[in-house]
Design goal:
By secondary structure, the protein is an alpha+beta fold. It is 48% helix and 22% strand. It has helices at 7-79, 88-102, 126-140, 149-152, 178-189; strands spanning 105-119, 122-123, 164-176, 195-205, 210-223.
């Protein structure tokens, strides 16, 4: 005999079925769509951050496009303050000018090794300078390291990241009054071409009232800056093995 459900029982069954349908709809449709919506919101935030970042970069690019020509002119002008090359002949002419301008007496000159201080568009650290010197020594001994186009033709104009900066080091023994020694140091530091005093050691001679000692000077060159090399006038300098200048290389 089939059991008949009362009206209340039918109502309860319908309510339960409705709740079950709602729960199924929530878990299988709404909850899944909610997870998808959350993923999309996260992606949207990510894309929005990327858009904001790219927009800020574009603003920087626009600003750089305005300032780059001015900066490029400043960089070119700075690079042109270097000689395109610094052979011993030119360094010796500078030392002679320093003597004439300051009044010091140079008693000996010792030329040190040339080192790179600028390459690939940046100033080199001490470790990078030593590594570059090692490569040059390898090339001199028959290694495979090849000179760059700027080094092969220093007077040509190349982009900044292809220029090669070199420092020729000289130890200069000199004697003079305090005023003369200071004038010599000032002449080096204020010269229109880049050069610098890297070290100085002087002692006072009470019998003469003068200072005697050694100054280390770097004479800088920038291969590839497009500046024509100016041959120095050394007609007034006696060059040879019997004077302080000794033998030199052109």
């Amino acid at each position: 005999m089939r059991k008949k459900f009362t009206t209340n029982q039918c109502r309860a069954i319908l309510i339960s079925a409705g709740i079950l349908i709602l729960l199924c709809t929530f878990f299988f449709l709404f909850q899944r769509n909610s997870d998808t919506v959350e993923e999309m919101e996260n992606e949207t935030r990510t894309y929005k951050n990327q858009v904001n970042y790219l927009s800020s970069l574009q603003l920087q690019v626009n600003q750089m496009q305005k300032t780059t020509p001015v900066l490029q002119k400043e960089i070119d002008a700075y690079m042109k303050k270097f000689s395109s090359q610094m052979p011993q002949k030119k360094a010796i002419s500078y030392i002679d000018q320093m003597m004439l301008k300051s009044g010091v007496k140079v008693t000996a000159i010792r030329a040190g090794k040339e080192q790179k201080f600028f390459e690939a568009g940046k100033f080199l650290s001490l470790e990078e300078e030593e590594a570059a010197s090692g490569q040059e020594a390898q090339a001199a001994s028959g290694g495979a390291v090849k000179a760059s186009p700027a080094e092969e033709n220093p007077e040509q104009q190349v982009p900044v990241d292809e220029m090669v900066g070199k420092a020729a080091f000289y130890e200069i023994e000199m004697t003079g009054s305090m005023k003369q020694i200071m004038a010599a140091m000032d002449w080096v530091s204020k010269n229109k071409d880049h050069m610098s005093v890297t070290s100085a050691s002087f002692s006072f001679d009470a019998s003469t009232g003068k200072l005697s000692g050694v100054a280390g000077v770097n004479f800088y060159a920038m291969n590839g800056n497009g500046r024509p090399y100016e041959e120095p006038n050394v007609s007034g300098i006696t060059l040879g093995t019997d004077n302080i200048f000794g033998n030199f290389k052109n």
